[in-house]
């Protein structure tokens, strides 16, 4: 392939670099660099449903017209509730500043729409490129030093639809030359589109989910006792389990709901959104008759915000001191929610319960949480005296899983 004076091959793009939130102001912004051309793009909403460009660089009037024309067909104002101004400040012009500005503007707009869950407001993805014609061929993604007779400025979608096409030049050219021009441009835009999509993917789903295969279920829990039970139950179907321990960068989810279901939805919906994967969550707790159903949804935080099983058990025994056996009945409850990414209305919800009695002294070493105090009358043991299989046969979580087992595969196939 032929090279330009600076060594860059004729069909090679300038290196692309995006710095999101280059300015630390609240307003969304990005610094886009294509080669040595640098444009700062900022977006601000306004009430009228219009696209406004505020290009700050040479030939601003024609630049604004071109940018608006190139973007307009992609924007669906049925979805966007307001319009927006895209301010593009050319900080350094080393060639093709308008198409560089367009790329920064489109992909900033796309992130902005995503943050507001208005992804549908953009009909397709766009990139723009500037291509030049020389005496002996075409050059992609022009720099200031490239000596060309004619330039072509193009915006094209990932559905191969052109939204803006401008040709400016000092020489006449024929149809074959135009085709050569377009061919070169499309090669450039295809490559550029891939680069922008990669960056967008990183910005919106920054978690590494490459280890998650088709036979894997993500469970949004940090509780290893729960995780072991899910692992065992799913293993019967040949399914492996990943938990939040596999994604340590996911922030803690505040269980601010007022019911098991609300809390399980919070956990499932948020993690499904962050990982963009179907996610199962479990919210469970112990409802003690003599305590009017406490600790209930507060079972993990019963003795204080730091989850401490020993302290929780000690508090339970203390609160039940003097309560006779026949009044120590309790229910263990589990709500399971299976969520698909960004479809909270489609959440699958099932429940499971088991009745038992709270002993006066702990028995058994297995299990977790309140297990040593929870006596189950049919197997005549505490949960902590049971093998994992025995516990799963009778437990709240086992019962919830059996309810889930009947429905989740069909649910997963829908949509
Ligand atoms: O003896 C027990 N046998 C069980 O089978 C069991 N299932 C749940 N629990 C306890 O009830 C609370 C749930 O709170 P919870 O649903 O918010 O879970 P958690 O905070 O531990 O983990 P996460 O899933 O929220 O990350 C926690 O204290 C759990 O230890 C159990 N105790
Ligand atoms: Mg919890």
TrEMBL record:
Mg(2+) binds at residue 283. This is dITP/XTP pyrophosphatase. Homodimer. Its cofactor is Mg(2+). Belongs to the HAM1 NTPase family. One of its GO terms (molecular function) is ITP diphosphatase activity. PANTHER family: INOSINE TRIPHOSPHATE PYROPHOSPHATASE, INOSINE TRIPHOSPHATE PYROPHOSPHATASE/HAM1 PROTEIN.
């Amino acid at each position: 392939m032929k090279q330009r004076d600076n060594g860059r091959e004729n069909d090679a793009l300038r290196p692309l670099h995006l710095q999101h939130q280059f300015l630390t102001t609240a307003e969304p912004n990005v610094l886009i660099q294509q080669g040595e051309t640098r444009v700062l793009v900022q977006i601000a909403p306004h009430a009228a449903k219009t696209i406004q460009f505020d290009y700050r660089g040479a030939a601003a009037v024609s630049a604004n017209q071109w940018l608006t024309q190139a973007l307009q067909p992609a924007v669906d104002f049925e979805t966007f509730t307001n319009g927006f101004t895209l301010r593009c400040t050319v900080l350094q012009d080393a060639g093709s500043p308008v198409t560089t500005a367009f790329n920064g503007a489109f992909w900033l707009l796309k992130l902005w729409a995503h943050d507001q869950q208005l992804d549908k407001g953009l009909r397709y993805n766009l990139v723009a490129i500037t291509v030049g014609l020389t005496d002996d061929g075409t050059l992609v993604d022009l720099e200031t030093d490239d000596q060309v007779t004619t330039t072509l400025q193009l915006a094209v979608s990932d559905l191969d639809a052109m939204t803006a096409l401008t040709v400016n030049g000092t020489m006449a050219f024929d149809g074959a030359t135009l085709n050569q021009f377009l061919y070169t441009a499309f090669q450039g835009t295809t490559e550029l589109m891939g680069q922008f999509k990669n960056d967008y993917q990183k910005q919106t789903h920054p978690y590494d989910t490459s280890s998650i295969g088709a036979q894997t279920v993500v469970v949004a829990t940090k509780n290893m006792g729960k995780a072991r039970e899910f692992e065992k139950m799913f293993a019967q179907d040949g399914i492996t389990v990943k938990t939040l321990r596999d994604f340590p960068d996911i922030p803690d989810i505040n269980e601010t709901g007022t019911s098991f279901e609300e809390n399980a939805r919070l956990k499932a919906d948020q993690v499904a959104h962050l990982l963009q994967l179907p996610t199962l969550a479990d919210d469970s707790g112990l409802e003690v008759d003599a305590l009017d159903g406490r600790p209930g949804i507060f079972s993990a935080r019963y003795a204080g915000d730091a989850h401490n099983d020993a302290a929780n058990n000690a508090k339970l025994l203390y609160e039940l001191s003097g309560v006779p056996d026949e009044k120590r009945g309790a229910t263990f409850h589990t709500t399971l929610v299976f969520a698909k990414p960004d479809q909270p209305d489609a959440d699958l919800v099932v429940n499971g319960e088991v009745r038992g009695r709270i002993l006066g002294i702990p028995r058994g070493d297995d299990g977790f949480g309140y297990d040593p105090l929870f006596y189950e009358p049919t197997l005549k043991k505490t949960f902590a005296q049971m093998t994992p299989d025995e516990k799963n046969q009778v437990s709240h979580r086992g019962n919830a899983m059996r309810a889930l087992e009947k429905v989740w595969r069909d649910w997963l196939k829908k949509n």
